[in-house]
Amino acid sequence: VLASGKGGVGKSTTAVNIALALAANDSTKEVGLLDADIYGPSIPKMMNLKGNPELTPKNLMRPLKNYGIACMSMGFLIEETAPVVWRGLMVMSAIEKLLRQVDWGQLDYLVIDMPPGTGDVQLSVSQNVPIAGAVIISTPQDIALLDARKGAEMFRKVHVPVLGLVQNMSVFQCPKCKHETHIFGADGVRDLAKSLELDILGDIPLHVNIRETCDSGQPVVISQPQSDAVSLVQCTLNRVDGTSHRCSLNRKVYLNVAQGNKVL
């Protein structure tokens, strides 16, 4: 699972590009992407997907697919501009359906894009799905780091391995003079990782290409595979996958509902 304590730190963008990089690395691997953010689903727009899931003869929803990734999101089940004004029990029911009533087929990886915070959704997913590991996404600013720490401690409390942290929007480089500006502060995530005794899995800059490509439904891993941004995403993925493998040696990570080998 990819998680964050604070919203707006680039978690969904990172989840999308990680899922696409997993598929790009090995065309024989089947990758799924679950948008667990009920109130603010982002995956449909980023993956350029619209429409409602079809139902199988067993009344299971078929994920929508693009770029070789099977995707499921609450955004496929409601109008694009409709707000989700639900109490906790309805949200939990929706999460249960997204987890249990989807025909994922034979997956090798299921990447779960979690909502921000440490609430009902995080607890439900953690307690009902054998997760290979959690990756915490944060910007370097102090406010985001406070909640990132809470997110990491929450996963530890429910016995989900925390694979490490990704420092997102770490630096902005002027496209003309190449001067680097640390808009959100410098190395805050590294300091947090050190205090939590966790690894830094990636350091991704604030780059206009990453934002523009996701907004257009053509994520940078797909539209600009040779770019520096994709190289950084790939380095992050390599560390995530390697750490996940080490953590799963002594932990069952098979997901019955998704028939997947790893849930990230």
Description:
The chain has 264 residues and is an alpha/beta fold. The protein has helices at residues 11-25, 43-46, 88-100, 120-128, 142-157, 188-196, 208-215, 220-223, 228-248; strands spanning 2-3, 31-35, 64-66, 69-73, 109-113, 134-138, 162-168, 172-173, 180-181, 200-204, 262-263. Helices cover 38% and strands 16% of the residues. Helix 1 (11-25) crosses helix 9 (228-248), helix 3 runs parallel beside helix 4 (120-128) and helix 5 runs parallel beside helix 6 (188-196). It comes from Nothoprocta perdicaria.
Query: Could you name the CATH topology of the domain at 2-29 and 108-263?
Result: Rossmann fold
Q: Report the end-to-end length measured between terminal Cα atoms.
A: 4 Å
Question: What strand order characterises the main sheet?
Answer: 3-4-2-5-11
Task: Give the percentage of residues in beta strands.
Answer: 15-25%
- Structural class, from secondary structure content? alpha/beta
- Name the CATH superfamily assignment of the domain at 2-29 and 108-263: P-loop containing nucleotide triphosphate hydrolases
CATH class placement of the domain at 2-29 and 108-263: Alpha Beta
Number of strands: 11
Number of helices: 9
Shape call: globular
The sequence of SSEs as H and E is EHEHEEHEHEHEEEHEHHHE
Radius of gyration: 17 Å
Give the helix proportion (percent range).
25-40%
CATH architecture of the domain at 2-29 and 108-263: 3-Layer(aba) Sandwich
What does the largest sheet look like?
5 strands, mixed
